[in-house]
Amino acid sequence: MNWLLVIVGAMVGAPLRYLTDRTVQSRYDTVFPWGTFAVNVAGSLILGLVTGAVAAGGASSQVQLLLGTGLCGALTTYSTFSYETLRLAENGARRYAAVNVVGSVVAGLGAAFAGAALAAAVWA
Fold first, then answer.
1. Which residues, including other chains, have CB under 8 Å from residue 82's CB and lie 6 or more apart?
2. Is 102 exposed, middle or buried (0-12, 13-18, 19+ CB in 10 A)?
3. From the CB of residue 40, how many other CB atoms can be counted at a distance below 10 Å?
4. For residues 84 and 96, is the Cβ–Cβ distance under 8 A?
5. Which pLDDT value is given to residue 11?
6. Mean pLDDT of 10-36
């Protein structure tokens, strides 16, 4: 049953990642990968919220598998982040590459902490 929860979450997360990335990126005429940035930060927020909810007893381990492992695992993408950062650096946009690395780490961690804090406030 656990693997089924992960699969269902991933079935939602993968297309959501693709559609969100395309929608966000189409709105900005820049080489910066806003779509990947957006899905990674959103996924970090969701994962922080779910993990915090499970830790506080507000959600079950099955919710963690469905949303944390399945949805967020398919929604977020370290490989695309890495590829796009490398591509930016190779194409001479080193400043964008550096902003992508620092911004993604800071925003992702901030979102995860915010999600966990929100969960603690709601379920404490």
1. none
2. exposed
3. 24
4. no
5. 98
6. 96
Q: What is the pLDDT of residue 83?
A: 98
Residue 56 gets which letter from DSSP? T
75 vs 12, 17, 32, 63, 89, CA distance in Å?
A: 8, 5, 19, 16, 24
Q: Give residue-wise pLDDT tens across range 56-74.
A: 999 999 999 999 999 999 9
| Phi, psi at 56, each rounded to 5° | -85, 0
Nearest to 9 by CA among 77, 72, 80, 79: 72
Place of tokens 């800071």: 106
pTM strictly above 0.85: yes
For residues 87 and 84, give the distance between their C-alpha atoms in angstroms, rounded to a whole number: 5
Classify burial at 79, counting beta carbons within 10 Å of its beta carbon; exposed 0-12, middle 13-18, buried 19 or more. Answer: exposed
Q: How many residues does the chain have?
A: 124
Q: Cα(75)–Cα(119) distance, rounded to whole angstroms? A: 20
Measured CA to CA, the distance from residue 47 to residue 56 in angstroms comes to 14
